[in-house]
Amino acid sequence: MTCRHRPGDPTCSTGNHPDALFKKGQDLVTEGQNLIAEWGPATPDADKYQIIDAVEVGTTLVVKAQYPSCDKCSYEGIKVMVFKNTSAINALKWSRIDPHFSDPSGNRDPDQAPTPCARFPASDEGWRDALTYARNKGTQ
Q1: DSSP state of 30
Q2: What is the DSSP-derived secondary structure letter of residue 99?
Q3: Coil, helix or strand at residue 54
Q4: 54-82: per-residue pLDDT in tens?
Q5: Cα separation of 11 and 44, whole Å?
Q6: Residue among 104, 115, 109, 105 nearest 63 (CA)
Q7: Considering 28, 71, 100, 115, which has the largest number of Cβ atoms within 10 A of its Cβ?
């Protein structure tokens, strides 16, 4: 529905006037900024992590990393990731591990982790599942 009222017209009840929509958008941005300030970022900082555990399975590496910037995320910011065609020696060179999936064909710096081929819940069962996945992936 298109609003034909003048800006600030008190008789407008649709809330669809461009000025009203802009105000609603500004309110949503402010609300989002307040939530980030209160809860922290909704995504981990890929440059700040601590590797808790890592296991090489053939040419596949399973990594459990904790992201302090994501402490309000599920599993206290811990991510379990599986990386194909890499080793623990390669991981020692990484200064950045982005736990999100991205285009695996993209060029990357050697000091950055490749995109994970899989992620699992950071529970005991998730860790076992990640190791099982790596074993199965390594034989294909």
Answers
A1: H
A2: -
A3: strand
A4: 999 999 999 999 999 876 677 788 999 99
A5: 46
A6: 115
A7: 115
Query: How many Å is the Cα radius of gyration of the chain?
Result: 22
- Structure tokens belonging to residue 24: 């609603």
* Secondary structure (3-state) at 140: coil
What length does the chain have?
140
Which two tokens mark 109? 């710096």
**Which letter does DSSP use for residue 112 in this model?**
B
| CB 112, CB 95: distance < 8 Å | yes
Looking up tokens 């065609």 gives: 85
- CA separation for the pair 93, 133 (Å, rounded): 24
Q: Which amino acid is at 19?
A: D
- The model's pLDDT over 100-128, given as tens digits with 9 standing for 90+, comes to 888 777 667 889 999 999 999 999 999 99
